[in-house]
Design a protein that fits this description.
The protein folds into 2 domains: 163 residues, Trigger factor, domain 2 (Orthogonal Bundle); 96 residues, Chitinase A, domain 3 (Roll). A 4-stranded antiparallel β-sheet has the order 4-3-6-5, with no helix packed on it. The chain has a two-stranded antiparallel ribbon with strand order 1-7. α1 crosses α10, α2 packs across α4 and α8 crosses α10. The chain is built from 10 helices and 8 strands. The protein is of the alpha+beta class and 355 residues long.
């Protein structure tokens, strides 16, 4: 059997999901007040069994993470290449200031940026304009944004001037044999002063992330197995409609960040927007009903006093000045559902065999 508290990363993801699709019923009651027996019959939730791949960290991942961390310690004075000109394929450390009509524009300037020449990371002409520049040299680039420019349509086709200083060229790094203790110590990582300590730091970070992912996978598998054990009747339409609305809003927000439509975003999954929503909206409703049904059966509901205590504790641990600041538009019922779900997941973990 598995007994495991959710780590902060997994718990935060769960909270986000619960806040997005929470309560509601045919009478728009809070989830805790719904007669779940009308909609779901629980199966053998006390004897779940799931199969999840064990967490593992490959040595190649450790080395690559080491190299990425190591680059933080490289400077013009320590480990950087400064005695030759920039060539295609080099990774350079640069400072740049972008101006339109002589004025700096938002997100157009940065310092200490690493850029691989030829990667196509910047607009046409930027990377080619640095080829041949010597470290320490400043280059003026008169360019134009592409048309269309999906990252920021307002800049499409606009003329732009960049002032770029090449600080140094990063040395090619392919293995631990290329690393120096003094550069590792300069990477600014706590308790890292040697390459060997840098390796351990990289491994510990990857292992910690792998463990969090494993716990999340176990949690997801456990929830899916719980749902598979349940017999669902016709789902309440109000909950379905709220789930559809929330899922659509989430897709629109995610799509807007990419500069595309929600329809295009759904198409990435081989579905139309309406098909995507109709496919996945019932899942959250089923999960909420099943969790609440287990809470009702096992006495895992959260009363008002416990809710207040848990919210105060959660707010304090996560840097909120008060419960009101924590709520920020969410309802207390959203958090009641969240804490109830945590209690149910702990209960299920005690009754789940992980293969």
């Amino acid at each position: 059997m598995l007994r495991r508290r959710l780590r902060r990363g997994a718990a935060a993801a769960l909270l986000a999901a619960m806040l997005l699709v929470s309560c509601g019923s045919e009478k728009d009651l809070p989830l805790a007040q719904i007669d779940t027996e009308r909609y779901v019959t629980l199966g053998d939730y006390q004897n779940l069994s799931v199969t999840v791949e064990k967490p593992k960290v490959e040595d190649a991942e450790v080395v690559q993470t080491m190299l990425n961390l190591y680059r933080r310690g490289i400077s013009a004075e320590l480990g950087g290449i400064t005695d030759r000109a920039v060539a295609r394929g080099d990774t350079v450390n640069i400072d740049y200031v972008g101006k339109m009509n002589g004025e700096p524009f938002e997100n157009g300037s940065a310092s200490g940026t690493q850029l691989t020449i030829g990667s196509g990371s910047f607009i046409d002409g930027f990377e080619d304009g640095l080829v041949g520049a010597m470290p320490g040299e400043t280059v003026e680039l008169d360019l134009a944004f592409p048309d269309p420019y999906l990252n920021n349509p307002d800049l499409s086709g606009q003329a732009v001037a960049f002032t770029v200083t090449v600080n140094f060229i990063l040395p090619p790094l392919e293995s631990e044999a290329d690393l120096l203790d003094e550069v590792a110590a300069a990477a600014g990582l706590e308790e890292v002063s040697t390459v060997q300590e840098l390796r351990q730091y990289a491994y510990d970070s990857l292992n910690r992330n792998a463990q969090i992912q494993y716990e999340s996978n176990v949690q997801n598998a456990m929830i899916q197995e719980l749902l598979a054990q349940c017999d669902f009747k016709k789902l309440p339409e109000n909950m379905l409609e709220r789930s559809r609305k929330t899922l659509t809003e989430n897709l629109e927000q995610a799509a807007a960040q990419l500069g595309i439509s929600a329809e295009d975003f759904a198409n990435f999954n081989g579905m139309s927007l309406s098909d995507f929503v109709e496919t996945y909206a019932p899942d959250s409703v089923k999960q909420n009903l099943a969790m609440q049904a287990v809470a009702n059966r096992e006495g895992l509901n959260v009363n008002d006093e416990e809710l207040q205590t848990r919210m105060e504790d959660y707010a304090a641990k996560n840097g909120y000045a008060s419960v009101d600041e924590l709520l920020n538009g969410a309802s207390r019922e959203d958090y009641r559902n969240y804490f109830m779900t945590l209690k149910v997941l702990d209960f299920l973990a005690d009754h789940t065999k992980v293969n």
